[in-house]
Amino acid sequence: MAERSFKAEVEHLRKGDGDVFTGEGILAITKALLENGVGYVGGYQGAPISHLMDVLADAEGLLGELGVRFEANASEAAAAAMLAASVHYPIRGAVTFKGPVGVNVASDALANLSSSGVNGGALIIVGEDYGEGSSIMQERSHGFAMKSQFWMLDPRPNLPSITKAVKDGFELSEASNTPVMLMVRIRSCHVTGSFATRDNVPPPLTVKDAIANPQSDFNRVVLPPMSYVHEQDKIKNRWPAAEKFIVENKLNEVFGPEKAKLGIVVQGGMYNGLIRALQRLGLADVFGKTEVPIYCLNVTYPIVKDEFDAFCEGKDHVMIVEEGQPDHIEQQLGSYLYKAGRNLKLYGKDVLPMAGEYTGQVLLDGVTAFLKSAAPDMLPSQIRAPNMEAPAIPDLTETVPIRPPGFCTGCPERPIFAGMKLVEQELGKHQITGDIGCHLFGSLPPFEIGGATMGYGLGPAANAAFDGGGERRAISMLGDGGFWHNGLSSSIGNMVFNKSDNVVVIVDNYYSAATGGQDVLSSRAHNDTKSTGNPIKAALKGVGVEWIRQIDHTYDVGHVRDTVREALTTDFKGPKVIVASSECMLNKQRREKPIRNKAIKEGRRVDVPRFGVDSDVCTGDHACIRLSGCPSLSLKRLDDPLRDDPVAHIDQTCVGCGNCGEVADAAVLCPSFYRADVVHNPTKFETWRAGLRTRVITWLQERRDGKRLRLEKALS
Amino acid sequence: MNMVLQQKTPDARVGQIIKLAVMAVGGQGGGVLTGWIEGLARAQGWTCQATSVAGVAQRTGATIYYVEMAPMSEQQPVFALAPAGGDVDVLIAAEMMEVGRAVIRGFVTPDRTTLIGSTHRALAVSEKMVPGDGIADADEVRAAAELAAQQLILADMEQLAVGQGSVISSSLFGALAGSGSLPFPREAFEEAIRAGGKGVEPSLKAFAAGFDAAQNGVQAPEKPLAKPAASLTGPATELGKWQALCNRVSGMPTPVQEMALAGLTKIVDFQDCAYGETYLNRLDHVVTLDSANTEWQLSATAAKYIANAMAYDDIIRVADLKTRRPRLSRIKTEMGAKDANLVELTEFFHPRAEEVASLMPAKMGAAWEANPRRMALLARLFNKGRRLRTHTLRSFLMLHFLGGLKNYRLKTRRHEVEVGHLEAWLKSSLDLVSTDYALAVEMLKNRRLVKGYSDTHARGLTKFATVMGAADLLRGRDDAAEWMNRLREAALQDPKGEALDGALKTVRSFV
Fold first, then answer.
1. Chain A within 8 Å of B505 (Cβ-Cβ)?
2. Fewer CB within a 10 Å sphere, N or C end of chain B?
3. Which of A27, A194, A290, A403 would best serve as a mutation to test chain B binding (most B beta carbons within 10 A)?
């Protein structure tokens, strides 16, 4: 069950000729795929295209009606490999994953696919995870297109342009027998807007029809000497065919006056940002009608030399707006200009920064710097000679704390790290590698466990140098998502084969949780179209792991601590794997809360646990927080002149996971925590028994109160 | 220059674009709020675009949503996908430090920005994990926001919403309507909530609360008047003794009285009036060393920390607090339990051998503590986590019994240790009064370092000893008090005492 359901939105995918679709970018892309007769779709989740996978999963009914096959691939590599169907068969296929880490994983398949060439249109929709909010290293996918010779689309970030790019992409792919990558940036995945829809088109040849008539052609196999022929084919035939298609179908756009001494070349995805800068300088109107000529590259690879030459005709100054580094496009254009011997000044990474996101301010500054040099008269007078000082606003950078993402309230991974932290206090610091997934938050304060992340499913592989053993065993983290993505072979198999003596903690939260709670092989949920319930433990045994400990309730901090300690100290030689399983709390709450509320309404007995802190018992040392970091466990200042430090406090968002109590117990912290179980619709016996208890307890309390001064009111 | 182009006047319609950013903490419903704003604008015949950066930011990290809208026209305007510094009309920040972050990022400018912020705090991990007080200064953020914003609406939007059984997105949406920064009537906003279809009634109530807060401002909560002298009930003899103790406090110098009364209250609540008398005797001794010239700083400080030291956290105190009558009703309110509900309580105790020995009579406890074999036996018998279900009679009776051991408390090993510690601390602090008054005050304040239970308590004691020991290094220096204060602050920065070690190194370098 994915974090977000698109069941309602998916109905909009049925819209046809003359209708208007209003919604999010990723939904628009799905609609465009259906309008363009796609035959099969697949992919692997990850920001920013997780929702695209969720939409496809929720749209499986509609896809089935149209005869479109949907595969939730095991990894990006598996997704890219699926495009092999378009090598021989005239079937359009599309896969999606995140860039550039997903592209890294897929690059083997992408390179082979590009060498073979395609018959049916092959589209790789990449959600480029770059800039603010990105969760990965900052790189570009562009280089992959250059090395493997596939084409790259970077459409303007509005729904009509993005959906047109899907159509253009398929056609370009077919016209040039080359796969095409459609890049959508992090914000254009989630941008909202409208576009005019067309009827959905069932694929002319379905995958079912295709396997009834299998085809093969050894000329398409990547083996010498055919691979040498493929390389020549790319340059001599596919590239020119692509250029021809791009020019004839005007995939790139030119805006603004035809004759001008200056112009700007921009990646399609950066177009809106550029226009906003020009709007702020009074050089473009609200609809984007610009005074400065713009050559908008909706195709960023290949660059069509003739088109670029034509744009530069009669110009003295041209600026390139290209986000990220290396400056692939600028280098290419510079080379064109130099070889043509043109006397034209080229601007780019000199007026704009080489690295970092091109935000509104960066673009405004860059365009201003370009115009100051190329055409100062165009700039508004206040920019040429500012006459007002901006008011001084106090610097808050020292005051405002950073707020990195962290474990959710009630997360089952928190107690795993609390347990590991306790072992660290006991046995000292160990070499620990992290992996990709929510559990990587364990590397942040308050736990600070894990010092590296080398890629999805590669946590234990990243400790391979230490497989030979030593005084202290190395520990690596691995998620269930990472385990099935790549970890089983690259990490676990690697350890078994190399006789590793190290320890692996597999964090099994029943889902690919960080990407939005999609099911994986070992998920416990029933899934109509996928096979779930395949235990990780069985897979571990299958590859030869002998020392396996299964923890079925990660909130038992003491048990986690003892198991980790055992793994680190046992005499057993060989890989030691702990599978720590408890359901992702976000998913659990989403599933159980409505059921619980319904049960309460219907008068059934429901027990709702929540934790609390007795503030008069808490001494304000915050040791509990250093072993938790739960968002619902916070601090409050007491209105008591005798107290200096704020005390722990649990707010109403607590889900009663039990971690607080377990930690207080396992770490021997303090007795201020309590769990309150609110019993809704108690049974008659319970109510009678509670009444009896209350009477006795009240009698005892009153008896004692009668003998002493009662000062509670003054203290509270 | 050979120009074909000339400077143009900016397009007036560009100025009509309303740019609105929402800065939130993941999980606050920023997406819902953005959806309402979008639905509202479209329903009012405007063209609108929203973007967000989802991804892992939703896992409680800082996250940002951005909306642009413009009156409908024949063509689609070109909207930006992200807010730009100096170019935001409305900034909604769903938490006080996010208000600060918005200001830092330049999204709030005096020429145009309406800033709607919630003053409540969702503390960052870095603020919470400090052993002392690491909470960021909200007043600094407020002061900067006042300078940076054109229109500023600050209120505890979280409380306004929760009070109506809703979530913060509703009250913020109400404040947006109340701010008048969007050209749409109130009804249109409410219609957007109804169109959303989820939790409509509570959302509308919270919306109204937010709307009022924006229009009429929020009354700053009145400073609670000085607490009335504790109104007490109890046996007449005890009340008489209490009155006598209060009279003694009234006879103390005025600046000392408030803290002395608070301290006395705590002490009597901890033990009894006789113990209160011991407290006042100790305090009287300090007062005799003090004078009005120094505004009785030493005595006021002593009043606070002697009380804290005398009301130490032993098992008896915890058991007493856990079994008192008002506790259950307090918990019921906090948990939102209704009369028909039952509330069952589980307490988490983990006694160690040390706690058990400390409960023994002083001599016996000391002997057991000195004997590792006996301590090991105690550990075997007692050292394990115990969950006491205090709504049941068995557990309640046990705690009730322990909580009633007050008469025996002053004979325990724990009391002996605490008294020894207290007297040593008082002596080494007060010895300095004649030579360095300010240093003596700082020494008293070091008592703040003693807190926590078990290991945390032991670590606190170690830090306390380290900081107190630095007096030997500092004595005789003009800035001794200042350094003592710095050492204490350093000790409160991290649990391991790394900052303290660094500060001590500095001290050693100049003495």
1. no
2. N
3. A403
Contacts of A287 in chain B (CB under 8 A): 73, 75-78
DSSP notation for A567-619:
HHH-S--S-EEEEEE---HHHHHHHHHHHHHHHHHTT--EEEEEEEE-TTT--
Do the two domains A12-205+216-248 and A253-378 of this chain adopt the same fold?
A: yes
Taking CA atoms, B282 is separated from A199, B278, B314, B360, B411, in Å, by 89, 6, 21, 26, 19
pLDDT at A386 over 70: no
Q: Which CATH topology does A253-378 take?
A: Rossmann fold (3.40.50)
pLDDT digits (tens, 9 = 90+) for B349-385: 999 999 999 999 999 999 999 999 999 999 999 999 8
- Interface contact flag, B269 A712, Cβ < 8 Å: yes
Å from B511 to nearest chain A CA? 30
* CA–CA gap between residue A267 and residue A250 (Å, rounded): 15
Please say whether the structural domain A428-583 has been given the CATH code 3.40.50.970: yes
pLDDT of residue A382: 66
- Going by pLDDT thresholds of 50, 70 and 90, the confidence category of residue A714 is very low
Give the residue extent of every domain in chain A. Answer: 12-205+216-248, 253-378, 428-583, 603-681
What per-residue confidence (pLDDT) applies to B197?
Answer: 85
Q: Which residues of B touch A50 (CB under 8 A)?
A: 54
Query: Residue A400 and residue B97: Cβ atoms within 8 Å?
Result: yes
Q: Does A314 touch chain B (CB under 8 A)?
A: no
In whole angstroms, what is the distance from residue A92 CA to residue B410 CA? 85
Strand partners, A647: A636
Q: pLDDT digits over B140-162, tens only? A: 999 999 999 999 999 999 999 99
CATH code for the part of the protein at A12-205+216-248? 3.40.50.970
| Cβ of residue B86 closer than 8 Å to a chain A Cβ | yes
ipTM associated with this complex = 0.94
* B chain contacts of residue A263, beta-carbon cutoff 8 Å: none
In the predicted model, is pLDDT for residue B195 greater than 70? yes
CATH class, domain A603-681, is alpha beta
A661 touches chain B (CB under 8 A): yes
Q: What is the pLDDT of residues B50-67, one digit of tens each?
A: 998 865 545 667 889 999
Contact A644 B85 (CB under 8 A): no
Q: How close is the nearest chain A Cα to the Cα of B214, in Å?
A: 24
B490 touches chain A (CB under 8 A): no
Distance set, CA A321 to CA A270, A332, A336 (Å): 7, 13, 17
How many CB pairs (< 8 A) connect A and B? 430
